[in-house]
């Protein structure tokens, strides 16, 4: 016989409705192992008890076979779960990097398009004059002294 842990006790109480009183017990319950059932079968003498114990031993054997057959599947499922959680964390990290990249690009754009104050550079796009504007400036009407010696006046 073995003594169940708190987690096993909670699982037994959740699965077996007739053991609800066990939930409030301060003691941990005892359970038979496969060998314990065989020992009990040797002690009991009635035909019915022997048949029930044989059936219990067969159930234990089937459970052991199922666990050993599906152990590799359970291990593979656990490995896939771990892999998925690892991928999930990496995907979240990629999204964080994308957010940071987008934020820096937005800040660069805002910095580039900020209103300029102070000295204006002649190379700025907003100060470039077209050929038409340059011609208009050169041919503007002048007031004051003549700069060239011409007889236009």
What oligomeric state do these chains adopt?
single chain
Terminal residue distance: 127 Å
Work out the radius of gyration: 45 Å
Class based on secondary structure composition and strand pairing: mainly alpha
Poorly predicted sequence stretches spanning 5 or more consecutive residues: none
**Averaged pLDDT, please?**
79
- Strands ordered across the widest β-sheet: 1-2
Helix content: 55-70%
The shape, in one word, is rod-shaped
Largest sheet: 2 strands, antiparallel
Protein architecture, described:
The protein has 4 helices and 2 strands, in the order E-H-E-H-H-H. By secondary structure, the protein is mostly helical. It has a two-stranded antiparallel sheet with strand order 1-2. Helix 2 runs antiparallel to helix 3 (47-112). The longest helix has 66 residues, at 47-112. The termini are far apart. The model has no long low-confidence stretch (mean pLDDT 79).
